[in-house]
Amino acid sequence: MATVCYSRNNLYSRPFILIVSQIIISNLVSLIPYVIILLPGILLSKKYAQKMAQMIDAFCKIRAYSTIAMVYFSFLLTLNRFIVIILPKYNVLFQSIKLYVLLLLMWLISFATSFADFHLYTRNFQISTLQCFQDYTKHPGGKLFNNFLTFLGLFLSIAMIIMYSAITCNIRRRFISVNHETQKTFAIKTGPKTYTLRTAKYERSMLIQAGLTSGGLILGILIFNLLPLTKIFDQKGLAAMNIFHCFYIISYRCALPTVFFLTNERARKYLRVLLNTNVVKSIQILTK
């Protein structure tokens, strides 16, 4: 996805590319502890039990920070699309130095939220069952902060659903208002450039994006808050449930690139050409 966004002939605005880049960075930061800490921990937990405690603590902190950052930047991306399509006069907020200030502000807010999370939560990860334990009862403001995080997650997800719904309705209204000859396309003005997109495909992209991003966030809140309250799982069932947790985390981080390539024919063609070119060059080098 980063390769397509930063290609020479891309059709995406600079704010879109920069915000998507922050989401990609958040996903990569989240992937690092799974590869460097969790997998070695599964293989070496019995042999290096003492050292694993520090590694697990680092894993929990990095995962929490990257998840919070990804949620914030997903909301910022939704807000950017909403302003570009619905309120273009406010698009100045995502131009020039204001965009970099906004991105820096998002990182600082993510760090502040994560710092409070590190201080008020006591986290531990049990490798044998792939279960992450969190305890907020040891700190005075832990319960209040936990309620705040739950409310914040629901608020951001509902806000994203509302904005995506407004975008879809706006696209549908434009589609109906134009005449039969020009109803297949509409223009989005983003500063100096004007991008023409197919209405039906862009509308479908908005619906899929809303379903995967906002719906996935709400599903995650329900999974991590309601399922632990049910005491119907034995040890084997608990391990299966925690494997599902890990699968959900990986799947949710794949939501943005999945929608991007499912609804963007140009991106799929560019990636196909790029892969074919690299494969052909590699084969030629090996056969020489």
TrEMBL record:
Highest taxon of the lineage: Eukaryota
Gene3D superfamilies, A to Z: Rhodopsin 7-helix transmembrane proteins
Presence of the UniProt keyword Nucleotidyltransferase in the record: no
Keyword terms: Membrane, Transmembrane, Transmembrane helix
Transmembrane segments: 16-44, 64-87, 99-121, 148-167, 207-227, 239-262
UniProt entry tagged with the keyword Membrane: yes
Identification of the protein by name: G_PROTEIN_RECEP_F1_2 domain-containing protein
Organism listed in the record: Brugia timori
Lineage: Eukaryota, Metazoa, Ecdysozoa, Nematoda, Chromadorea
